[in-house]
């Protein structure tokens, strides 16, 4: 009787076959020669694998396509086909929750993106979206691989398309740890959050040489696109850190506040901070005199669990605060006026910053708490010519569109259009609270009297005394703490010391809120 069988392989040959992949993987994990690694370290940068180890839980990383290489091509590539092709891709966990990651290896062809490199990124992005898990990119590369021509450009387009497809579905976090040049810089701009490391990270579309050739301007890499520029001037970077370890630790913290995808709530925790603890300190932190400034950060710290919060865009548009924190164990997004900067007025940058933050929170089911102490919009020719109407409308649109639980709290003043766009009841806030120090009005009493009674004051024999009397009358009749409550625009005037308890219980009540948005292809927000 004859049978079909596979050729026999002796045990020694089988052992060799098993060991060969292991040896190849070890060589790939070590990366290029030690000189390339040493040169990389002299620039103050960790290797791609060291970064992944810091980001993910210990021993949780599963690497994909470690042995992939680029195809042979001309222009000096022949014989230079290292494994990984300059990018490490895979998945692991952060605090036990699955996260996908790709990291450019700047030791290999400068971390530039070629066909094989980009194909690996496409694959990991597709897996993150298909499985509904966050995606973190660790960026450190010189842009497109020039020797591969249009293939590299087309691959970039595939990354951008996937960024957009995943937008609002899974959290996307970009960490810039070295150069991020040319078209590569578009991807971080399309993601939800951008981290940069001071002095070693730069992002720009052109670069100092191109700027110099076209405009004659002399500028260095950091001056053109460094971390401080993008965190304080352009607003591209949300977070900046002095070193990579601190940066990656903060990425882990941010991930702990975000859901895996848009179908899940953010992770809730038990808090050791009593919900009903007294907020007596708030009476000292916030002056009753509406003209005296104070730091809203201290108010946020007093309200949230353990005083811990993560401020987004700390150095950009500082007249409005945007923070992620927990209140009663529930993750909440906080938008707050900042009276210590420009008296807390809204302007173009503040409107952009808050609008983006509101939409991000709404995308990922994070309730919104808005703290108001706002005198209005910044009056200025530059602001009007710069499109303040259009930019303020972005913030208005973001709030009107948001379906998450929304709570507004007026601490002191809330004047004019700024009161409306900062989540007033009229645009859909679920609950509106106010402290007894609140003043909700079209404008301050002095300004209102100057407009309404201009002629009467001018014709008076005692204009100063008349103006003072009219201001007091206007304030007493139209700006007293209960005026908005009497008309149903404020649900309750609350004791400031009870604020934390009221907010926590309100968030708990609103947890089951469900809103079905209208069926449409998409909205058309102001740009």
UniProtKB/TrEMBL annotation:
SUPFAM superfamilies: ClpP/crotonase
A Pfam family reported for this protein in Swiss-Prot or TrEMBL: Carboxyl_trans
Composition bias type Low complexity, residue spans: 1-19
GO cellular component: acetyl-CoA carboxylase complex
Region (Disordered): 1-44
Keyword tags: Transferase
InterPro entries: AccD/PCCB (IPR051047), AcCoA_carboxyl_beta (IPR034733), ClpP/crotonase-like_dom_sf (IPR029045), COA_CT_C (IPR011763), COA_CT_N (IPR011762)
GO molecular function list: propionyl-CoA carboxylase activity; transferase activity
Domain (CoA carboxyltransferase N-terminal): residue spans on this chain: 14-270
Key word Transferase present: yes
Domain CoA carboxyltransferase C-terminal positions: 274-509
Protein name: Acetyl-CoA carboxylase carboxyltransferase subunit beta /acetyl-CoA carboxylase carboxyltransferase subunit alpha
Source organism: Amycolatopsis cihanbeyliensis
């Amino acid at each position: 009787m004859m049978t079909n069988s596979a050729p026999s392989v002796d045990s020694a040959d089988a052992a060799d076959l098993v060991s060969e992949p292991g040896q190849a993987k070890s060589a790939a994990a070590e990366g290029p020669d030690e000189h390339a690694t040493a040169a990389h370290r002299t620039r103050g940068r960790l290797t791609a694998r060291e970064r992944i180890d810091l980001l993910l839980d210990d021993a949780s990383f599963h690497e994909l396509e470690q042995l992939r290489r680029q195809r042979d091509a001309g222009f000096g590539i022949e014989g230079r086909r290292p494994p990984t092709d300059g990018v490490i891709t895979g998945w692991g966990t952060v605090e036990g929750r699955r996260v996908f990651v790709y990291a450019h290896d700047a030791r290999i062809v400068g971390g530039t993106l070629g066909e094989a490199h980009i194909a690996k990124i496409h694959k990991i992005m597709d897996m993150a979206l298909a499985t509904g898990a966050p995606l973190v990119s660790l960026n450190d590369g010189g842009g497109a691989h020039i020797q591969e021509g249009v293939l590299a450009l087309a691959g970039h387009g595939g990354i951008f398309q996937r960024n957009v497809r995943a937008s609002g579905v899974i959290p996307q976090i970009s960490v810039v740890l070295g150069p991020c040049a040319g078209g590569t810089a578009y991807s971080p701009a399309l993601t939800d959050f951008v981290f940069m490391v001071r002095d070693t990270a730069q992002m720009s579309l052109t670069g100092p040489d191109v700027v110099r050739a076209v405009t004659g301007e002399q500028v260095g890499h950091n001056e053109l696109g460094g971390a401080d520029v993008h965190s304080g001037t352009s607003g591209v970077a949300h977070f900046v850190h002095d070193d990579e370890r601190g940066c990656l630790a903060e990425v882990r913290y941010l991930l702990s506040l975000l859901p895996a995808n848009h179908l899940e709530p953010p992770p809730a925790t038990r808090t050791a901070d009593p919900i009903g603890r007294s907020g007596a300190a708030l009476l000292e932190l916030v002056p009753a005199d509406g003209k005296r400034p104070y730091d809203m950060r201290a108010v946020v710290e007093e309200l949230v669990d353990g005083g811990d919060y993560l401020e987004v865009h700390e150095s950009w548009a500082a007249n409005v605060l945007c923070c992620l924190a927990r209140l009663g164990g529930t993750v909440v997004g906080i938008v707050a006026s900042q009276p210590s900067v420009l008296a807390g007025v809204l302007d173009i940058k503040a409107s952009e910053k808050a609008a983006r933050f509101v939409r991000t929170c709404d995308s990922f089911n994070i309730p919104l708490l808005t703290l108001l102490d706002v005198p209005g919009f910044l009056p200025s020719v530059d602001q009007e010519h710069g499109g303040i109407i259009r930019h303020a409308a972005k913030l208005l649109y973001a709030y009107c569109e948001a379906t998450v639980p929304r709570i507004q709290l007026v601490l002191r003043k809330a004047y004019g259009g700024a009161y409306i766009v900062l989540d007033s009841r009229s645009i859909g806030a679920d609950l509106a609270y106010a402290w007894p120090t609140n003043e909700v009005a079209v404008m301050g009493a002095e300004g209102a009297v100057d407009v309404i009674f201009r002629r009467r004051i001018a014709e008076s024999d005692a204009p100063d005394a008349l103006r003072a009397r009219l201001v007091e009358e206007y304030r007493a009749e139209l700006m007293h703490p209960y005026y908005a409550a009497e008309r149903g625009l404020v649900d309750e005037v609350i004791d400031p010391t009870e604020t934390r308890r009221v907010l926590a219980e309100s968030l708990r009540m609103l947890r089951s809120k469900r809103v079905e948005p209208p069926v449409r292809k998409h909205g058309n927000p102001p740009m």
